[in-house]
Task: structure prediction
Amino acid sequence: MADPGRRTLRIRPLLESDLAQVTAIEEACFTAPWSERTFRNLLRRPDAFLLSAVYEALYEEERVAGYAAVWFVGREAELGDLAVAPGDRRRGIGGELVTAVLEEARSRGVVRIFLQVREGNQSAQGLYRSRGFEIVGRRRGYYAGPKEDALIMRRLLVR
Result:
């Protein structure tokens, strides 16, 4: 018999009902967080795809542990946002979200996917490198609070 209190993680499309939890995670993770309105607008865009990593249990409501937002332009994509709740980190959730984004990009015929990350965010860079991304550029002084360069990373999906 399954343990009724056991939580399982599932990656699924982000729902409008996730937005309060997503916004709370965004605010906990970033110095210049996106607003709920930004996420809501992305949900309405046909070129955008948003995912939630949710814990579900038999007798409890789903709890969002992380999310990702990606958009597509022709045969390219940009992973614009990815975050995992601070209490849920180091459990592979970020990696599962990146893998799901890459699968969606492949299904849409994308050949290159880009992202940018703070130069000082070594854990995020390690995650992206583990999924095949490489540094291909830099935007000097891009981030504020604190001021920091953005590293541009790219993953080729077709060789």
In short: Strands lie at 8-13, 48-57, 60-73, 76-84, 112-118, 134-143, 148-156.
